[in-house]
Amino acid sequence: YATIMAYPTGDHSNVKHFSNPNVSYDDQSTGTSSRYNADALETTYSTIKDFRVSNDLRARFSVSGGPRDNERTFSANPCGGSGTYNYTWYISYNGPGDYGGAVSSQKSFTKPFPEGTHYVKLVVNTGSQTDTAIRSFYVSGECDGRKPCIKTADSTTEEADGGSPSAKQMREKPSPTQVTLHAPRPNPVSSSSRIAFDLPEQMDVTLTVYDLMGRQVATLARGTESAGTHRARLGGASLPSGTYVVRLRAGETQKSRRITVIK
Shortest CA distance to 23 belongs to which of 45, 6, 38? Predict the structure, then answer.
């Protein structure tokens, strides 16, 4: 049983044991009559070991494809069961549970997706056994098929009548002197929010979004960007309601802002 419970010794180090008054370490008992976890394990083992059917079928699959690529490849890798595996794949674009008809019966398939969070369900059958696996993934917006939709502030200014920039637009904007991550606008957001950041010089940049559990849910920018002000777009419609953290890493500098998604 030397794997689970940490037993403190005199020098405050921990030795991992199930508590057991019949087992000693460093001349000290690792348990008492009222602290005897090993006994509970021994008395329930014969029941617990029968909970899992021998050679149970397990549906599993992997998802490959980078955050800049709107295509995803899904590959089934089930285990257990007996006989030939039969695969049925389903996709939901509107949250878990909203699946349409089957999209593939192959072991592996590739499919393009729009920006947002999507869910894929795999049902595997073999013999008399059936098992299901579900995974979610996020696809960022695409501009030209190679990098996320991120534009400099100058490239998004509107032109005056006649197609020429106005005098106000022609004025030179002051160059940023430090890395700055501006507050998302709008915030809270229900559909789409713009996130701007300033760079004082050309830098390697990563702009990502995390939920409060620390899980990365979106990549808005990644690569080398020139000095100036840049903007990225976060599609709030693809995220569940809640609070998220937008994190900018520019060179050795990190900045963060919070954004709230409401439905």
Answer: 38
Q: Per-10-residue mean pLDDT for the chain, 263 residues long?
A: 44 53 68 69 65 76 71 90 92 77 94 79 92 79 39 32 40 76 87 90 91 86 88 84 90 89 82
- What integer pLDDT is reported at residue 90 of this predicted model? 94
Contacts of 130 (CB under 8 A, 6+ apart): 57, 123, 124
**Fold topology of 150-261:** Immunoglobulin-like (2.60.40)
CA pair distance 151, 181, nearest whole angstrom: 15
The domain limits of the chain are: 6-48, 61-139, 150-261
Determine the pLDDT at residue 86.
Answer: 96
Which pLDDT score, from 0 to 100, does residue 118 have? 79
Query: What are the structure tokens assigned to 113, written together?
Result: 């997706």
Cβ 207 vs Cβ 195: under 8 Å: yes
Q: How far apart, in whole angstroms, are the C-alpha atoms of residue 120 and residue 122?
A: 7
Domain 61-139 sits in CATH at 2.60.40.10
Three-class HEC string of 206-238: EEEEEECCCCEEEEEEEEEECCEEEEEEEEHHH
Alpha-carbon span 148 to 57, nearest angstrom? 39
